[in-house]
Write a structure and sequence with these properties.
Layout lengths: L1 H10 L7 H12 L4 H11 L3 H10 L11 E6 L2 H5 L2 H12 L5 E2 L5 E6 L11 E3 L2 E3 L4 H12 L18 E3 L12 H9 L1 H11 L11 H10 L6 E6 L8 H8 L1 H15 L3 E6 L7 H13 L15 E6 L9 H8 L23 E5 H13 L1 H5 L9 E8 L5 E6 L4 H7 L5 E6 L5 E4 L17 E6 L4 H15 L5 H18 L5 H17 L3 H6 L1 H9 L1 H6 L12 H9 L4 H12 L1
């Protein structure tokens, strides 16, 4: 083992910033991170042993005990639950003869839940040793179990089990364009760096990750910093349940992503870039590395790009199952080989980012847009959208609709139009922007996707009238409690208490004072948490309470009933109420 650890450390130039990459390699070989491997690694990287232990403990995809030759994780996202995931998980348990959260007695296989796999358009989905399993059914599970019991290498499994489709349903400005291969860089160098930055500003492009910060300003501030080194980072850690657009862009438009990063690097004066790829997308890693190598061969990356004296290269860092690393400062910490704990801000990354140097962090869609703007000009992009929200937005649409997949719309498009396009009928509501976003009811479908109305990172989860609002809130509250990094008390303790409070209400054990306590707890978490995770963790409760108070109240009634009245059954009926009118009517019936 000592020689292997030495070899891996040497291949990574003994750089502590590549700790995650090294740990991935160790786990792939031994199926966990052995204690003696940590000892050797600490010596080779000149890091405290406790530092490596803390990093291993922080990321859910790293293990200190063997999880078996086959580690199977099944998505517990609300979209997978809506497709029958719970029944399939029980079937998996039965066929594999292993309990959820355990390793089988023979040590061959483990089975557990995971938050989301980024396959919401083709679930129920899961992962085996990090590789995506899609469209799970009982016959497909039988196949998987057979392969596991025979100890068949993954390379020999039926490739259809791992098939991941793009599902691009409605392209527009960006998705109608072919992947760029040098055109954006050539246009930038020909036009001029300052002139191209002016085109980015003219376009009105704002960050597509959700925050919506003006892209040109971010690049300008980084460019103006007095520094000998600057960095470009692509945030490809789309861990928000219901979001999968970046997966599609990386699969089919990777050249455009890297082109946009290179344009940004030329403008701000960076020589090194990183793509931080979420751990669930390991199936894309080899393909992305091949695209990078092809770009180096074409002199679109590396030294003296296109003979213009411009040096820039890109390295891919694979995440390890931490939703918090979607927050830009936590992502930077992870890139530096640390636990992904969000930093205090200011300073912001544009002044002090990776290794304390000025750093631009944008998401995948933003770089694709920037590359195309560099080719077509700012007016081409700004011609679409609204006065405050220029261009188009790519949406990941899942849930109760006929055509789940990727849609691109000009900003200003109504929710009603989007629902009609994807074949959603009898809609109760839509979760916009994932769990950290907002739930809108069927009274709000004239609202528009735009920064001035419904700002979104790109997720639409659709719920019809057979769904329970409280089931959705229950799933989201568990998600946030699980994903809290634990750094600050309001989030660490608050999300745990919120989960318990929601459980109490959903199970019919709440009292009249619990609603008040729930709202007070939400405000504490929202107003006092350290980062965006905690600040948005209460959104599912707050937005559903605002729109459906009757459904909550129906779960809290404590009155006397006639002999033979089934209170539990009545509470279950109220919990399943499709909308506020039905819940109110049922509540009135119970009271009478």
């Amino acid at each position: 083992m000592h020689n292997y650890i030495l070899q891996i450390a040497q291949e990574n130039d003994f750089q502590s910033t590549r700790l995650l990459k090294i740990l991935h390699a160790i786990q792939k070989r031994y199926f966990y991170i052995p204690d003696n491997a940590i000892e050797v690694l600490a010596e080779q990287l000149q890091l405290p042993r406790t530092h490596i232990q803390n990093v291993v403990a922080f990321y859910s995809f790293f293990h200190t005990q063997s999880s078996g030759k086959y580690t199977i994780l099944i998505s517990d996202s609300i979209t997978d639950l809506m497709l029958g995931k719970s029944d399939l998980m029980s079937y998996f348990e039965q066929k594999l003869k292993v309990d959820i959260g355990s390793v089988r007695a023979d040590g061959l296989v483990s089975l557990n839940n995971t938050s989301c796999t980024g396959m919401c358009d083709q679930g129920p989905a899961g992962l085996v040793n990090g590789y995506a399993l899609t469209h799970l059914t009982k016959p497909r599970i039988d196949q998987i179990v057979n392969y596991v019991n025979r100890e068949t290498p993954l390379a020999q499994w039926d490739s259809d089990l791992f098939r991941v489709d793009d599902n691009i349903v409605k392209p527009d400005l960006l998705l109608n364009e072919k992947p760029l291969h040098g055109h954006a860089i050539t246009s930038t160098l020909t036009r001029g760096l300052s002139e191209t930055l002016a085109e980015i500003e003219l376009s009105g492009l704002r960050g597509r990750g959700g925050a919506g910060y003006t892209t040109a300003w971010k690049w300008k501030f980084c460019r103006e910093e007095n520094a000998t080194q600057r960095y470009i980072i692509c945030n490809a850690d789309e861990g928000e349940p219901g979001t999968f657009k970046d997966r599609v862009l990386l699969n089919s438009y990777a050249d455009s992503v890297f082109e946009g990063m290179t344009v940004a690097a030329a403008i701000v004066g960076a020589t090194q870039g990183f793509l931080y790829l979420r751990g669930e997308y390991v199936h894309l890693l080899d393909k992305l590395e091949a695209v990078l190598e092809a770009r180096r061969v074409s002199n679109l990356l590396g030294s003296n790009i296109l003979q213009n004296g411009f040096d820039f290269d890109i390295e891919i860092c694979l995440g390890a199952g931490a939703y918090i690393c979607g927050e830009e400062s936590a992502l930077i910490e992870s890139l530096e080989g640390k636990a992904g704990i969000p930093r205090n801000r200011p300073p912001y990354p544009v002044t002090q980012g990776y290794l304390g140097k000025p750093t631009v962090v944008n998401n995948v869609e933003t770089y694709v847009a920037a590359a195309n703007i560099a080719v077509h000009g700012g007016a081409w992009f700004a011609d679409k959208g609204t006065s405050k929200s220029k261009g188009t937005k790519i949406l990941s649409i899942s849930g109760d609709c006929k055509a789940r997949g990727i849609y691109e719309y000009a900003f200003g498009t109504t929710v009603k139009t989007i629902l009609a396009d994807c074949g959603a009928i009898d809609v109760l509501g839509v979760q916009v922007g994932g769990p950290s976003g907002v739930f809108i009811s069927n009274d709000e479908f004239e609202r528009k996707i735009a920064f001035e109305d419904l700002a979104t990172g790109g997720s639409f989860i659709i719920f019809n009238h057979t769904r329970s609002i409280l089931d959705v809130v229950h799933n989201f509250s568990h998600f946030f409690a699980h994903e809290s990094c634990g750094f600050c008390t309001p989030c660490r303790v608050g999300t745990s208490l919120l989960k318990k409070q929601v459980d109490k209400i959903v199970e019919g054990h709440g009292s009249a004072g619990d609603i008040v306590a729930l709202e007070e707890l939400c405000q504490v978490i929202k107003n006092y948490s350290h980062c965006g995770l905690g600040q948005t963790a209460a959104n599912p409760v707050l937005s559903s309470l605002e729109r459906y108070p009757e459904i909550y109240q129906a779960m809290l009634k404590k009155i006397s009933y006639e002999p033979g009245f089934d209170l539990d059954k009545s509470l279950e009926t109220a919990r399943r109420m499709a909308n506020r009118d039905d819940a109110a009517a049922h509540l009135a019936q119970v009271e009478n």
